[in-house]
Specification:
mainly alpha; Protein RER1; single chain; transmembrane; transmembrane helix; 7 helices; Rer1; 211 residues
Amino acid sequence: MSEGDSVGESIHGKPSTIGSFFTRVGQIYQSWLDKSTPFSIGRWGVTLSLTAIYMIRVYILQGWYIVTYALGIYHLNLFIAFLSPKVDPSMLDEDEGPALPTKQNEEFRPFIRRLPEFKFWHSATKGIVIAMICTFFEAFNVPVFWPILVMYFIMLFCITMKRQIKHMVKYRYLPFTHGKRTYRGKEDTGKPFARFTSYIQYLSYCNYSEP
């Protein structure tokens, strides 16, 4: 084997080694994500802790307000996508398929979000981590009058949520589903006193009918 062949193999071997390393890291990362899927409370607890750490860091450093504003806008967009249905009822005709149920006697159909809860958490957490990394670079510390940013964000939040609530009221849907609705019989729909009275009448009838 010549020297050129060995050099060529070493050169061609480096990309495969680096690629396999990042592939392995991605597999481990995805494995941890899959394991954390059922633990929604723990996941959001970690995210809230990271948010608190980030806010404390920004408060101590007295800077990076533009990064915080961008992070707030990003989280607001994620939250609106989380509250929105996957298929917009305003863009859906009657013949295009099932829409959201608008009456009590309609078939139960769970609310399908445009952005699922897990993706919402994952994207929100990544945004916080990226914002935290940006606070270590002075280039992202753009001088700005932060009360104006706070006022803009509050106005944008109120306008966006008002539009979303109007959309929910217009098409009569709720972005939360706690399981399939169960319907009770007539004997379970009355008041407790009425059910008790019926039971007493039933016992009286049984005693009267005995020989």
